[in-house]
Amino acid sequence: MMQKFRPTAVLWPVLFFAILAVLPTVAVAMDDNFLISFVARVLIYAIAASALNIALGFGGLVSLGHALFIGLGMYSVALPAHFGISDGFVHLGLTVLSCAVIGAVTGFVSLRTSGIAFIMITLAFAQMGYFVFVSLKQFGGDDGMALAASSEFFGFGLSSPTAVYGCALVILALLTLWVSRLRESPFGMTLRAGRQNARRVASIGLALPRYQLTAYVLSAVLCGVSGMLLVNLNAYASPSSMSWMISGELIVMVVLGGMGTVFGPVLGAFAFLGVEELLKAVTEHWMAVFGLLILAVAMLGKAGVIGVLGKWRRRSDAAPVQAEAVAQGGAQ
After folding, report:
1. What is the distance between the alpha carbons of residues 210 and 296, in angstroms, rounded to a whole number?
2. Spatial contact of 110 and 119, defined as CB atoms under 8 Å apart
């Protein structure tokens, strides 16, 4: 059955991205360079969260290893730049190739298991990647390495926070549009059906593991792109970017915003990093307060921030209808 088109479902994301588009101009007028850098970082993590949502939200694959692909994206820029290669297309090609190959291999092995075993295997692969880059002492080892040259595309370089901001915003907007179409496509519907009941999907002749592996590789490559942007923003690459804590934060962003929704991971990234920054400025015990806030959102609705906003929207839409019904009843 066709879903009813809701103009507000499109209006709010468009308005959200429009505000983000004019934010750098406002920040420059206020002479606030921190705001641009901070929101650029949030946009990059929103890309990574949206990427993870393809595997986690649509496919039900709880991965604790997606930070590995962020790290691969960072080093796909940092290592060539160390040898004097600043061509952004080379960086992008290495990012896509490394994340696609590693994602296909690790995904193929991990998908032979399920549940807790899947989570632990993806975590193990991420830790393996972490220790591989720690062992590269000639490239900084555990201390990481500074970015020798930023990525350049036809003379346009990602050498400033404003440039990274604009690039990340465009990628996130296009990714959000693409994910909205992917979700309603046969591929997306198969993934979502498999998350709810894998046996029924298999019973109609669909090879669910192939769909899940494709989703895993797609999310890996997109996480790699976010890593490529992050290293240009920070001008620094570190093995700590592959930490399981980063993977855990991405999962929290997806769940906090609304797992399996289109715009939820974006809101989750902004809510997670925004509230974190505000609490850090207020108290040194911000983690305890932050944990309680996440618990409160989880208790308010399983669909996260999107679910809470959806309830408010339905109530506001229902109020005029109820008032009209009462008025008509009184007139009769």
Report:
1. 37
2. no
